């Protein structure tokens, strides 16, 4: 278990220091703003579509290390997926961090994202980890904003 939490810390720190797809997309097809007032995390997600696929996805904003690392890994996971596949990931990620699904026992497509399973022990952090997912879900469903409240 301590091995897992070392890996978790390492990945969070690395993505926080060097977030992937941390930029604006000037001609994005969809954007949404996400806010987690509890922690002060605020980010904007940009999505470019090609047919039904996410051609490009990026984010900008500020927040704690967990929210930023989660957003960074969210963009990596969602890029190239169809809206339907992205919705499945959103649902699975949410269920995992809420403790409604055991990602090691139940079949899922989370892959590397399973590293966030440990946040279910910390209710305040669940919102940090899931903010970018709520926000990309809002963008893909043509909603302008998402809040963890
Ligand atoms: Zn946070």
Give a description of the structure.
This protein has 149 residues and is an alpha+beta fold. The protein has one domain: Sufe protein. Chain: A, CATH 3.90.1010.10. It is built from four helices and four strands. It has helices at residues 2-17, 65-78, 83-97, 123-140; strands spanning 30-36, 41-50, 53-62, 145-147. The chain has a four-stranded mixed beta sheet. A hairpin with a 4-residue loop joins strand 1 and strand 2. The longest helix is centred in the C-terminal third of the chain and has 18 residues, at 123-140. It binds zinc ion. The site of zinc ion has 8 residues, from helix 2.
Shape: globular
Bound molecules: zinc ion
β-strand amount:
15-25%
Secondary-structure-based class equals alpha+beta
Could you give the order of the helices and strands? Answer: HEEEHHHE
Q: What's the number of helices? A: 4
Please report the first level of CATH classification, the CATH class: Alpha Beta
Please give the radius of gyration in angstroms. Answer: 14 Å
Number of beta strands = 4
